[in-house]
Amino acid sequence: MTAAGLLAQMMEMETSMSARIMDLEHAHRALGGHEDHELLGEMLHNLTELVALNQTDNEEAMSHAWLIICGALVMFMHAGFSMLEAGCCRAGFAQSVLAKNLLNCCVSTLGWLVLGFPLAYGGVLWSDVCEYDGCGFFASGLTPQSADSVVAYSMGPLNWFFQWAFCMTSATIVSGAVAERLQIGGYCVFCLVMTSIIYPVVVSWTWYSKGFLYEWGYMDFAGSGIVHLTGGIGALIGTIMVKPRTGRWDADKADDFAPHDVPMIVLGTIILWFGWYGFNCGSTLSMSKHKGYVAGIVAVNTTIAPAFGGMVVTFIRRNQEPYKWMTTETCGGILAGLVSITAGCGNVHPWASVVIGSVGGVLYVLAADTLVKYKVDDPVQAFPVHGACGMWGVFAAVLFDWGVPYGAFNGWEAHNPTDGMGIGDAFTAAITFLALNFVWTGSTLALTFSALRAANLLRMPVQAELDGFDEHEFSPKQARVTYSPRLSVQNKGEGAQQ
Predict the structure, then answer these.
(1) C-alpha to C-alpha distances, 377 to 27, 63, 89, 171, 175, nearest whole angstrom
(2) Looking at residue 39, what is its pLDDT?
(3) Which CATH architecture has domain 54-144+152-473?
(4) What is the structure's pLDDT at 229?
(5) Residue 107 confidence (pLDDT)
(6) Contact 42/76 with Cβ under 8 angstroms?
(7) Which of 83, 153, 195, 213 could lock 111 by a disulfide, CB 3.0 to 4.6 Å apart?
């Protein structure tokens, strides 16, 4: 039986049981003082409890399926990051970029398993108030120690898996920003620090129910600030400390650094947009009638904002020198719109998504031009997309909250205790978060990259950079072979005979 058929059967059973309860209620009232009155009342009570239990079981089962599917979509976003970053770089560095994205998934899993998850959700700092099952080291507690300790429908494993996918995203944002010059070993060390310490601490302030910013009412539905800004700050610090690619700002070599594969960039962008529906919609963290409605609103907003972000950037760039259509910039605008709406996708009206996505596109252009002005070399525009638009998304979630026009800040009740909060309180929490994130993430990563430089793990040798890192460090030496060596030799032999 298909999932749709099973769902239809479950709904039919629930409707039938509800009708049976109504019939029993009518009979119960009609009997009044009759001797069967007490027996019928007991039957009614038992049937009502059965329906409630059945509904709870159904919602828990749907929540499990929902988080697995959405978490898998978020994980699949790394295919998008890989394609986009590899396409933005020069051909001789494609394998190194792809390798970093693959290793990011592996090393980030280690960081999240050993320390990241317990640090984020209470197992390290507050061992007696863990947010989820399994918040100990190495995910201890996710699985039962005996048959008697099995907790039916525990959400611990699902939350570990779903939040793991988010954690990896915060790290992989940096890989493209430092492409073509950061050593792979140094990047692995960065990933471990980012996913085991830096990002989990940010989560412990905000998404953890005992975190002080959570209690202040900080609103970030799916992570414009928590995930994307944290990664964007890492990208900015990394590009500054690793320094520009050799020759990047030489006037006569500008064309040498153009993206080598535009179709790959477009494919990566579409994959990321697709995966973002898991990123944003899955942040309901469960599934019920109410959560299903919220997920629908989130999906609508996650569609509108990137569409307008992409259009705004396209036409801004079309009207700037050299007055050409720029496909890669359209991709940047789409991603800018996605990052901008991520914080407020669950608490803003669809019309607000038009404004949020459009402003995100403008901020992306301004931030990208500013980096060029100050000669900060960011091949994939990681900071303009994730940093600048991440900050905007945090403020937009407050400014366009659907309760603000009526004089109150609503947020979303499943994430924030916003009772009695006003817009001023929400802005205070947002500003505090931004300041703390810049100080914490910026200083910690500055120390990390300084240590990598001291250990000679930061920058690749100049000659390897000039020749192409793939040729020096990888086998095969090319990411894509465009001819058959055997056929080439055969053709040469035929030519010699002729």
Answers:
(1) 77, 43, 12, 18, 13
(2) 52
(3) Orthogonal Bundle (1.10)
(4) 98
(5) 97
(6) no
(7) 195
Q: How far apart are CA 403 and CA 308, in angstroms?
A: 24
Beta carbons of 347 and 410 less than 8 angstroms apart: yes
**pLDDT at 193 (0 to 100):** 97
Q: What is the pLDDT of residue 1?
A: 45
With a CB cutoff of 8 Å and minimum separation 6, the contacts of 86 are 94, 97, 98, 261, 264, 268, 479
Q: Which residues in the chain come in under a pLDDT of 50?
A: 1-8, 10, 24, 28, 31, 33-35, 37, 40, 149-153, 414-417, 489, 495-498
SS3 of the chain: the string is CCHHHHHHHHHHHHHHHHHHHHHHHHHHHHHCCCCCHHHHHHHHHHHHHHHHHHHHHHHHHHHHHHHHHHHHHHHHHHHHHHHHHHHHCCHHHHHHHHHHHHHHHHHHHHHHHHHHHHHHCCCCCCCCCCCCCCCCHHHCCCCCCCHHHCCCCCCHHHHHHHHHHHHHHHHHHHHHHCCCCECHHHHHHHHHHHHHHHHHHHHHHHCCCCCHHHHHCCCCCCCHHHHHHHHHHHHHHHHHHHCCCCCCCCHHHHHHHCCCCHHHHHHHHHHHHHHHHHHHHHHHCCCCHHHHHHHHHHHHHHHHHHHHHHHHHHHHHHCCCCCCCCHHHHHHHHHHHHHHHHCCCCCECHHHHHHHHHHHHHHHHHHHHHHHHCCCCCCCCHHHHHHHHHHHHHHHHHHCECCHHHCCCCCCCCCCCCCCCCHHHHHHHHHHHHHHHHHHHHHHHHHHHHHHHHCCCCECCHHHHHHCHHHHHCCCCCCCCCCCHHHHHHHHHHHHHC
The angle at the Cα of 165, spanning 160 to 171, to the nearest 5 degrees, equals 120
| Cα gap 423→429, rounded to integer Å | 10
Q: Give the pLDDT of residue 443.
A: 97
pLDDT 10s digits, 462-477: 988 888 888 888 888 7
Residue 98 is predicted with a pLDDT of: 95
The CB density around residue 209, as the number of other CB atoms within 10 Å, is 13
Instruction: Give residue-wise pLDDT tens across range 291-321.
Output: 899 999 999 999 999 999 999 999 999 999 8
pTM of the entire predicted model: 0.85
Please name every residue paired with 348 in a beta bridge, in sequence order, or none if there are none. Answer: 401
20 within 8 A of 7, measured Cβ to Cβ: no
Q: Which residue has the tokens 């793990």?
A: 457
Alpha-carbon span 248 to 181, nearest angstrom: 12
Distance of CA 110 to the CA centre of its chain: 18
